[in-house]
Amino acid sequence: RGRPRAEAYDGILFAGGEDVDPSLYEEEKKYESVHTDRARDDFELALLDSALERRLPILGICRGIQMINVKFGGTLYQDLKTDTAIELNHRQPDNRTQPIHAVTLTDPESRLADAFQGSCRVNSLHHQAIKRLGRGLKVTAHSEDGLAEAVEAADDYPFLMAVQWHPEEMASVPEQRKIFEQFLAQCREVAARRSQG
């Protein structure tokens, strides 16, 4: 099939799922809790390359933020309970639509600041998180225990946003829906330019 290309798309959303292979950030798998899908990693990393080349809108969710961070040279905590001393529960046992902890904006000029002001409460369904931030990214929100919960491009890239929670599971909340509205608005701009030739 060859290398995945993004020519036919107006934007790319990288969704949740398995853990990113630790070898991609130069570590060996340390825990049985780490479940990977290398074929998916390779496909999505190539697709991300293509999207970045074309400066397409990019939105990452949960695994998506982790994969984007690794692509930019960052690393991950392979298992929060084992690798850190944090006590906040980041893997709620049930009801994905309910918020479990707060996230606070760290950059009032970010795109995320257009979705909510100051802080908001989010669900949490992950056991990994950003450890070392990738080059070319900036943290735009963090959790109560200091973990990076959202990142964006640090330069003038048109639209790259990624969040550690699952806003699609909380789409009835206006602040969470706004994230998708922003992404879709950027995609429509790309589609309009495409149609104009």
Question: How are the secondary structure elements laid out?
Answer:
Elements (H helix, E strand, L loop, with lengths): L11 E3 L23 H16 L4 E4 L1 H9 L4 E2 L2 H4 L17 E5 L13 E4 L6 E2 L6 E7 L4 E6 L6 E4 L10 H22 L2
Parallel strand pairs: 1-2, 2-9
Antiparallel strand pairs: 3-6, 4-5, 4-7, 7-8, 8-9
Protein described:
By secondary structure, the protein is α+β, with helices and mostly antiparallel strands. The chain contains four helices and nine strands. Strand 7 (137-143) and strand 8 (148-153) form a beta hairpin.
Strand tally: 9
Return the structural class.
Answer: alpha+beta
Percentage of helical residues? 25-40%
Question: What kind of sheet is the major sheet?
Answer: 7 strands, mixed
Whole-number average pLDDT? 94
Question: What topology, given as strand order, has the largest sheet?
Answer: 1-2-9-8-7-4-5
Q: What portion of the residues fall into strands of 2 or more residues?
A: 15-25%
Tell me, what's the shape?
Answer: globular
Low-confidence stretches: none
Task: Report the order of strands and helices.
Answer: EHEHEHEEEEEEH
Terminal Cα separation, in Å?
Answer: 27 Å
Number of helices: 4
